[in-house]
Protein backbone atom coordinates (compact mmCIF):
# COMPACT_ATOMS: atom_id res chain seq x y z
CA UNK A 1 0.00 0.00 0.00
CA UNK A 2 1.42 3.35 -1.02
CA UNK A 3 0.97 6.53 1.02
CA UNK A 4 0.80 9.93 -0.64
CA UNK A 5 3.10 12.73 0.48
CA UNK A 6 0.12 14.81 1.59
CA UNK A 7 -1.28 11.92 3.59
CA UNK A 8 2.07 11.27 5.24
CA UNK A 9 2.34 14.93 6.20
CA UNK A 10 -1.13 14.86 7.75
CA UNK A 11 -0.16 11.85 9.81
CA UNK A 12 3.09 13.45 10.95
CA UNK A 13 1.27 16.59 12.03
CA UNK A 14 -1.12 14.47 14.05
CA UNK A 15 1.80 12.62 15.61
CA UNK A 16 3.76 15.62 16.89
CA UNK A 17 2.62 14.93 20.48
CA UNK A 18 3.60 11.27 20.06
CA UNK A 19 7.17 12.24 19.25
CA UNK A 20 7.58 13.79 22.69
CA UNK A 21 6.65 10.65 24.62
CA UNK A 22 9.00 8.73 26.87
CA UNK A 23 10.88 5.76 25.41
CA UNK A 24 9.25 2.32 25.49
CA UNK A 25 11.12 0.34 28.08
CA UNK A 26 8.93 -2.68 28.70
CA UNK A 27 10.44 -6.20 28.52
CA UNK A 28 10.61 -7.61 25.01
CA UNK A 29 9.66 -11.09 26.27
CA UNK A 30 6.02 -10.17 26.94
CA UNK A 31 3.45 -11.84 24.69
CA UNK A 32 2.53 -9.71 21.70
CA UNK A 33 -0.81 -7.95 22.29
CA UNK A 34 -3.72 -8.48 19.93
CA UNK A 35 -4.23 -5.97 17.14
CA UNK A 36 -7.22 -4.16 18.64
CA UNK A 37 -7.78 -0.56 19.80
CA UNK A 38 -7.10 -1.77 23.35
CA UNK A 39 -3.65 -3.08 22.46
CA UNK A 40 -1.76 0.16 23.04
CA UNK A 41 1.70 0.06 24.63
CA UNK A 42 1.27 -0.90 28.26
CA UNK A 43 2.06 1.22 31.30
CA UNK A 44 2.71 4.96 31.22
CA UNK A 45 3.45 4.90 27.49
CA UNK A 46 0.03 3.44 26.79
CA UNK A 47 -1.67 6.09 28.88
CA UNK A 48 0.28 8.81 27.09
CA UNK A 49 -0.68 7.45 23.69
CA UNK A 50 -4.34 7.45 24.69
CA UNK A 51 -4.17 11.05 25.86
CA UNK A 52 -2.65 12.68 22.77
CA UNK A 53 -4.58 14.66 20.20
CA UNK A 54 -6.00 12.50 17.39
CA UNK A 55 -5.26 9.37 19.42
CA UNK A 56 -8.30 7.79 17.79
CA UNK A 57 -6.17 7.41 14.64
CA UNK A 58 -3.90 4.92 16.44
CA UNK A 59 -5.54 1.52 16.17
CA UNK A 60 -2.68 -0.54 17.61
CA UNK A 61 0.79 0.18 18.96
CA UNK A 62 3.61 -2.01 20.22
CA UNK A 63 6.79 -0.81 21.97
CA UNK A 64 9.87 -2.95 22.49
CA UNK A 65 13.53 -2.15 23.16
CA UNK A 66 13.31 1.49 22.12
CA UNK A 67 11.31 0.89 18.94
CA UNK A 68 7.61 1.16 18.21
CA UNK A 69 5.34 -0.32 15.55
CA UNK A 70 2.10 1.62 15.09
CA UNK A 71 -1.03 1.05 13.00
CA UNK A 72 -3.17 4.03 12.05
CA UNK A 73 -6.66 4.18 10.60
CA UNK A 74 -8.93 7.05 9.64
CA UNK A 75 -10.41 8.87 6.66
CA UNK A 76 -7.45 11.25 6.48
CA UNK A 77 -4.80 8.50 6.54
CA UNK A 78 -3.13 6.70 3.67
CA UNK A 79 -4.66 5.76 0.35
CA UNK A 80 -7.29 3.45 1.81
CA UNK A 81 -7.58 4.96 5.27
CA UNK A 82 -4.88 2.82 6.90
CA UNK A 83 -1.13 3.11 7.35
CA UNK A 84 1.66 1.52 9.39
CA UNK A 85 4.94 2.95 10.62
CA UNK A 86 8.02 2.22 12.70
CA UNK A 87 9.51 4.69 15.19
CA UNK A 88 12.78 4.77 17.13
CA UNK A 89 13.48 6.61 20.37
CA UNK A 90 16.43 8.96 19.86
CA UNK A 91 17.55 12.28 21.34
CA UNK A 92 14.65 12.35 23.78
CA UNK A 93 11.82 11.92 21.29
CA UNK A 94 10.14 9.47 18.96
CA UNK A 95 11.44 9.67 15.39
CA UNK A 96 9.75 7.94 12.49
CA UNK A 97 12.11 5.63 10.63
CA UNK A 98 9.82 4.02 8.06
CA UNK A 99 6.35 4.41 6.62
CA UNK A 100 5.83 1.15 4.84
CA UNK A 101 3.91 -0.64 2.20
CA UNK A 102 1.57 -3.39 3.30
CA UNK A 103 0.40 -6.48 1.49
CA UNK A 104 -2.62 -8.43 2.74
CA UNK A 105 -2.30 -6.84 6.15
CA UNK A 106 1.45 -7.47 6.58
CA UNK A 107 4.27 -4.96 6.46
CA UNK A 108 6.44 -5.67 3.41
CA UNK A 109 9.95 -6.64 4.51
CA UNK A 110 11.65 -5.57 1.28
CA UNK A 111 10.00 -2.15 1.51
CA UNK A 112 11.38 -1.66 5.01
CA UNK A 113 14.90 -2.66 3.96
CA UNK A 114 14.97 0.20 1.46
CA UNK A 115 15.28 2.74 4.30
CA UNK A 116 18.95 3.58 4.91
CA UNK A 117 20.21 2.55 8.32
CA UNK A 118 17.09 0.54 9.21
CA UNK A 119 17.74 -3.00 10.42
CA UNK A 120 14.73 -4.74 8.92
CA UNK A 121 15.77 -8.12 10.30
CA UNK A 122 15.76 -6.86 13.88
CA UNK A 123 12.40 -5.08 13.50
CA UNK A 124 10.89 -8.20 11.94
CA UNK A 125 12.01 -10.14 15.01
CA UNK A 126 10.89 -7.51 17.55
CA UNK A 127 7.45 -7.02 16.00
CA UNK A 128 5.75 -10.21 14.79
CA UNK A 129 2.60 -8.06 14.59
CA UNK A 130 4.04 -6.50 11.43
CA UNK A 131 3.78 -9.90 9.75
CA UNK A 132 7.10 -9.56 7.93
CA UNK A 133 8.72 -12.65 6.43
CA UNK A 134 12.48 -12.87 5.95
CA UNK A 135 13.37 -14.82 2.82
CA UNK A 136 15.32 -18.07 3.43
CA UNK A 137 18.15 -16.80 1.21
CA UNK A 138 18.42 -13.49 3.04
CA UNK A 139 22.17 -12.88 3.54
CA UNK A 140 23.44 -13.46 7.03
CA UNK A 141 26.58 -12.28 8.82
CA UNK A 142 29.15 -14.71 7.40
CA UNK A 143 31.39 -11.90 6.07
CA UNK A 144 33.95 -10.75 8.65
CA UNK A 145 34.88 -7.08 9.00
CA UNK A 146 38.33 -6.46 10.51
CA UNK A 147 40.37 -3.39 11.35
CA UNK A 148 42.29 -3.93 8.09
CA UNK A 149 39.31 -4.56 5.80
CA UNK A 150 36.35 -6.83 5.15
CA UNK A 151 36.46 -10.32 3.70
CA UNK A 152 39.13 -10.42 1.01
CA UNK A 153 39.07 -6.64 0.62
CA UNK A 154 41.99 -5.10 2.50
CA UNK A 155 43.32 -1.64 3.23
CA UNK A 156 45.91 -0.46 0.74
CA UNK A 157 44.15 -1.93 -2.30
CA UNK A 158 43.58 0.15 -5.40
CA UNK A 159 40.07 0.84 -6.65
CA UNK A 160 40.30 -1.95 -9.22
CA UNK A 161 41.58 -4.39 -6.61
CA UNK A 162 38.85 -3.38 -4.15
CA UNK A 163 36.14 -3.93 -6.75
CA UNK A 164 37.51 -7.39 -7.51
CA UNK A 165 37.89 -8.37 -3.84
CA UNK A 166 34.65 -6.93 -2.45
CA UNK A 167 32.41 -9.54 -0.76
CA UNK A 168 29.42 -7.67 -2.20
CA UNK A 169 29.11 -6.38 -5.79
CA UNK A 170 30.04 -2.71 -6.01
CA UNK A 171 27.17 -1.54 -8.18
CA UNK A 172 27.61 2.21 -8.02
CA UNK A 173 30.23 4.08 -9.94
CA UNK A 174 32.92 5.73 -7.87
CA UNK A 175 32.30 9.29 -6.73
CA UNK A 176 33.98 11.94 -4.63
CA UNK A 177 33.11 12.51 -0.98
CA UNK A 178 35.25 15.41 0.13
CA UNK A 179 38.83 14.29 -0.43
CA UNK A 180 37.87 10.62 -0.85
CA UNK A 181 36.71 8.41 -3.67
CA UNK A 182 33.69 6.46 -2.44
CA UNK A 183 32.55 3.05 -3.67
CA UNK A 184 29.17 1.76 -2.52
CA UNK A 185 27.42 -1.56 -2.85
CA UNK A 186 23.64 -1.41 -2.50
CA UNK A 187 21.48 -3.83 -0.56
CA UNK A 188 17.81 -3.30 -1.43
CA UNK A 189 18.29 0.43 -1.81
CA UNK A 190 20.72 1.37 0.96
CA UNK A 191 24.51 0.93 1.28
CA UNK A 192 25.53 -2.36 2.88
CA UNK A 193 29.21 -1.60 2.28
CA UNK A 194 31.03 1.68 1.70
CA UNK A 195 34.68 1.67 0.62
CA UNK A 196 36.69 4.87 1.13
CA UNK A 197 39.76 5.51 -1.03
CA UNK A 198 42.16 8.26 -0.03
CA UNK A 199 44.19 10.74 -2.01
CA UNK A 200 46.92 8.16 -2.58
CA UNK A 201 44.46 6.03 -4.55
CA UNK A 202 44.22 3.18 -2.04
CA UNK A 203 41.57 1.98 0.41
CA UNK A 204 41.94 3.39 3.92
CA UNK A 205 38.57 2.48 5.48
CA UNK A 206 35.33 0.54 5.02
CA UNK A 207 31.87 0.95 6.56
CA UNK A 208 29.14 -1.70 6.82
CA UNK A 209 25.45 -1.42 7.75
CA UNK A 210 24.37 -4.98 6.97
CA UNK A 211 25.45 -8.58 6.36
CA UNK A 212 28.82 -8.56 8.17
CA UNK A 213 30.19 -9.06 11.66
CA UNK A 214 33.47 -8.70 13.51
CA UNK A 215 35.47 -11.70 14.72
CA UNK A 216 33.85 -11.12 18.11
CA UNK A 217 30.39 -11.60 16.57
CA UNK A 218 29.33 -7.94 16.68
CA UNK A 219 27.19 -6.86 13.73
CA UNK A 220 24.65 -4.18 12.79
CA UNK A 221 21.71 -4.84 15.18
CA UNK A 222 23.95 -5.96 18.07
CA UNK A 223 23.12 -4.24 21.35
CA UNK A 224 25.46 -2.09 23.42
CA UNK A 225 25.43 -4.84 26.06
CA UNK A 226 26.60 -7.39 23.48
CA UNK A 227 29.26 -4.95 22.26
CA UNK A 228 30.67 -4.44 25.75
CA UNK A 229 30.58 -8.17 26.43
CA UNK A 230 32.33 -8.92 23.14
CA UNK A 231 35.24 -6.51 23.58
CA UNK A 232 35.52 -6.04 27.34
CA UNK A 233 38.31 -3.69 28.43
CA UNK A 234 39.43 -3.15 24.83
CA UNK A 235 36.34 -1.06 24.11
CA UNK A 236 36.93 2.68 24.45
CA UNK A 237 34.21 5.33 25.03
CA UNK A 238 31.79 2.49 25.75
CA UNK A 239 29.10 4.83 27.11
CA UNK A 240 28.97 7.03 23.99
CA UNK A 241 27.24 6.60 20.62
CA UNK A 242 30.63 6.01 18.95
CA UNK A 243 32.58 3.41 20.96
CA UNK A 244 35.68 1.95 19.33
CA UNK A 245 38.59 -0.46 19.65
CA UNK A 246 42.14 0.20 18.47
CA UNK A 247 44.64 -2.16 16.87
CA UNK A 248 48.01 -0.45 16.36
CA UNK A 249 47.26 2.47 13.99
CA UNK A 250 43.88 1.03 12.96
CA UNK A 251 40.48 1.25 14.58
CA UNK A 252 37.02 -0.28 14.49
CA UNK A 253 34.27 2.18 15.46
CA UNK A 254 30.64 1.34 16.13
CA UNK A 255 27.96 3.95 15.49
CA UNK A 256 25.04 3.32 17.85
CA UNK A 257 21.45 4.46 17.54
CA UNK A 258 19.30 3.91 20.59
CA UNK A 259 21.96 1.56 22.03
CA UNK A 260 21.89 -0.59 18.88
CA UNK A 261 24.82 -0.88 16.44
CA UNK A 262 23.74 0.78 13.18
CA UNK A 263 27.11 0.90 11.39
CA UNK A 264 30.64 -0.42 11.76
CA UNK A 265 33.62 1.57 10.47
CA UNK A 266 37.03 -0.05 10.15
CA UNK A 267 40.36 1.20 8.90
CA UNK A 268 42.99 3.88 9.17
CA UNK A 269 41.28 6.90 10.76
CA UNK A 270 42.21 8.55 14.04
CA UNK A 271 38.94 9.77 15.53
CA UNK A 272 35.20 9.86 14.98
CA UNK A 273 33.84 8.12 11.88
CA UNK A 274 35.71 6.98 8.80
CA UNK A 275 33.75 9.41 6.61
CA UNK A 276 34.88 12.34 8.78
CA UNK A 277 38.43 11.72 7.53
CA UNK A 278 37.23 12.71 4.05
CA UNK A 279 36.11 16.21 5.08
Identify the overall geometry: globular
Instruction: Give the count of helical stretches.
Output: 6
CA distance, first residue to last residue:
40 Å
Unreliably modeled segments: 1-39
Name the beta content range.
25-35%
Helices and strands, in order, run as: HHEEEEEEHHEEEHEEEEEHEEE
Main pleated sheet: 7 strands, antiparallel
Q: Residue-averaged pLDDT, rounded? A: 75
Percentage of helical residues?
10-25%
Describe this structure as you would to a colleague:
16% of the residues lie in helices and 32% in strands. The protein contains six helices and 17 strands. The chain has helices spanning 5-14, 43-51, 109-113, 120-126, 159-165, 224-231; strands at 58-64, 67-73, 82-90, 93-99, 102-103, 106-107, 143-146, 149-150, 153-154, 175-177, 180-187, 190-197, 203-208, 212-213, 244-247, 250-257, 260-267. Mean pLDDT is 75; it is low at 1-39.
Amino acid sequence: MQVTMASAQRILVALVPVLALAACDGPSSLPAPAATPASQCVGEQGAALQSIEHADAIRASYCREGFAFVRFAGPEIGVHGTQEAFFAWKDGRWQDIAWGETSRGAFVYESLRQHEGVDARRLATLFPEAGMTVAPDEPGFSVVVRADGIGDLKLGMTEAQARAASPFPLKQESGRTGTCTTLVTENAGFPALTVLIGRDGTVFAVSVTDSAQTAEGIHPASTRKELVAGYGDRLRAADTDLPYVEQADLRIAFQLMNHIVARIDAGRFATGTAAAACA
